[in-house]
Design a protein that fits this description.
Elements (H helix, E strand, L loop, with lengths): L3 H12 L6 E5 L11 E7 L17 E7 L2 E7 L4 H4 L6 H9 L4 E10 L9 E8 L25 H13 L5 E7 L8 H10 L3 E3 L3 H9 L3 E11 L10 H26 L1
Parallel strand pairs: 1-4, 1-5, 5-9, 6-7, 7-8
Antiparallel strand pairs: 2-3, 3-4, 5-8, 6-9
Helix pairs in contact: 1-3, 4-7
Amino acid sequence: MSGFGKECADVVRAARSGTYKVGLILGSGLGSLASEVEDATRIPYTKLPEFPVSSVTAHASELVAGMLEGVPVVILSGRAHYYESGNPSIMRTPLETLKELGCETLIATNAAGSLRDHIKPGSPMLINDHINWSGLNPLIGEEDESRFLDMSTAYDPEIREALKAAAKDVGEDLEEGVYMWFSGPSFETPAEIRMSQVLGADAVGMSTVPEVILARFLGMKVAAISTITNMGAGLQAHGLSHDETKEMAPLGAAKIKKILRAYMKSIA
């Protein structure tokens, strides 16, 4: 570890003692879940050494430690994106902090654009694999052979099955698909969307992939769910905007919250 993860974990432990089980990264629309954590300690990212603060308006930039459905969790309410800094490893310190606090599992969420007619805006999509179209990697610069990371089961099959079972329990449809990472911050072109479809992607977005790589590198099990906020460029009558993302994100996020709560109950 870089050392900053331990320093940040020490700050969290000083505010709230305990060991945690699950770490969650909340993307656009899911910030309200952080307010539902019980026995919560809230620490602004600005109070944690080397923690990146997001410039995206929908991200709160706050760490929340506490209990969710009987499970000790650490929530990262908001993330820093590659497009904000040009650094693909920008989320390393936050993820090291989760690991240092004992989190064995990471569940990441994000907002994404759909490439498939059956995956509609306002619905959640469980990620079962990804395509790193950006070519960027947060492990560039690692000096030992641990950098040659096996990504064949990056999205843990057992956790995916548990999340699908949780969705069924609460009566929510949960599509499954491949997420393709573009660096952003500009949206994709219609030609890029057509290419993504040909390459086998089901949704596109601007986050999550570097976090998944880092979390697997740190030895954590990983799952991820996208909130579908729009259809990809050229697949809907109107153009794309971040305002649309912010408007649509809460619809899918409400469904993801129900699924996550049911999943937490199942592992408590």
